[in-house]
Write a structure and sequence with these properties.
The chain has a nine-stranded mixed sheet with strand order 2-1-21-20-14-3-12-13-18. 17% of the residues lie in helices and 28% in strands. It contains six helices and 21 strands. The protein has two domains: 264 residues, QueA-like, CATH 3.40.1780; 86 residues, QueA-like (Thrombin, subunit H). It is α/β, with parallel strands linked by helices.
Length: 371
């Protein structure tokens, strides 16, 4: 299976640069998972695709203002730091630009009006160089780190968004609560509190999981063969009540519908065979439609840890029965996951239709539901 199998042509002007004023006013493309049939709708009508007894799985991670702009002590050369993973209370694994000039021992000053350490509310010291050239940075400050970061940091918007985000809350879902992401679970950006209330009122359950999205989600697939790509690891949590709710949903014959690829990857990572057997590996086949486990074959466990699960065509889904998602980059791991669920030909045909109909693409763009 080739990475190029998942390419499609996207005019640059269709990449959404700003969020809509009303979150739920995005367009919605309904893709029939089995038939490939495409219908056009509005996200405001998302509840019409759900049924009483279904469970909607949402990722309640919260994006932090993880982009810091500072200067190197001594030279005053500009430095950009992106916080990736918290290693201890004050030490983070980071992506630093320009990395070559930020050697071990270098100190970066943030928020200093005169470029001196004495007046810098935040100082970062490079203490180590780790995998892929990332830097471990120990931060020095007074007070609470989260408050300092909130004052100095910026939202780490994807590289294809060139407009400044005026309201940083728009790069978080309305249900975001667990801080730790460097990128938003964007399928959830379309929901309002009122829409979620409407969905719950009709008898649909809401299940919370957490997966802290890393910047690796934007990393291109560099290998020609899909199977040779290695996913970045991300931290996830499946609470006990969520595992119990999803297991009961499956037992009762109702559907588990994930909001976003991150929710999907979370529950698929925490699923285990009910009989304790070994889970079979994916059988790569670019045009394969989704394989689905038999009812009762898998159960969801309360679990937390790191996952590097890579879902591509040939994968047999254990828990997910439906997916709400945005439109993803060509040749990305995300479009591969969607193709694993609905079939590559169906997905690429739907994307071609979305381009023709001038849908808005990527993080601030329109949505798709596959059921």
């Amino acid at each position: 299976m080739k990475t190029s199998d998942f390419y499609y042509d996207l005019p640059e002007e269709l990449i959404a640069q700003d969020p809509l004023l009303d979150r739920s006013s995005s367009r919605l493309l309904n893709l029939g998972r089995e038939t490939g049939e495409v219908r056009h709708d509005s996200f405001k009508h998302i509840a019409s695709y759900l049924k009483p007894g279904d469970t909607l799985v949402i990722n309640d991670t919260k994006v932090i203002p993880a982009r810091l702009l500072g200067v190197r002590e001594g030279s005053l050369g500009k430095v950009e730091i992106l916080l990736l993973t918290r290693k201890s209370a004050d030490t983070w694994e980071t992506l630093v630009k320009p990395g070559k000039k930020c050697r071990i021992g270098s100190r970066i000053l943030f928020g200093s009006p005169d470029g001196t350490a004495e007046k810098a509310p935040l100082i970062g010291e490079i203490v180590d160089i780790v995998d892929e050239g990332n830097r471990l940075v120990k931060f020095y400050y007074e007070g609470i780190f989260e408050e300092v970061l909130d004052a100095l940091g910026e939202m780490p918007l994807p590289p294809y968004i060139h407009h400044k985000l005026e309201d940083r809350t728009r790069y978080n879902t309305v249900y975001a609560k667990n801080e730790g992401s460097a990128a938003a679970p964007t399928a959830g950006l379309h929901f309002t509190k009122e829409l979620l209330g409407e969905i719950e009122a009709m008898g649909v359950h809401i299940a919370h999981v957490t997966l802290h999205v890393g910047l690796g989600t934007f990393r291109p697939v560099k290998s020609d063969n899909v199977e040779e790509h290695h996913m970045h690891s991300e931290f996830y949590i499946v609470p006990k009540e969520t595992a119990e709710l999803i297991n009961e949903t499956k037992r009762s014959g109702h559907r588990v519908i994930c909001v976003g690829t991150t929710s999907c990857r979370t529950i698929e990572s925490a699923a285990e065979r009910a009989d304790g057997g070994v889970t079979e590996k994916a059988v790569p086949e670019a045009d394969a439609c989704a394989g689905t486990a038999e009812p009762g074959e898998y159960i969801l466990r309360e679990k937390s840890g790191w996952t590097d699960i890579f879902i591509y065509p040939g994968y047999r889904f254990k828990m997910m029965d439906g997916l709400i998602t945005n439109f993803h980059l060509p040749e990305s791991t995300l479009i591969m996951l969607v193709s694993a669920f609905a079939g590559r030909k169906h997905v690429l045909a739907a994307y071609e239709e979305a381009v023709k109909e001038r849908y808005r693409f990527f993080s601030f763009g329109d949505a798709m539901i596959i059921v």
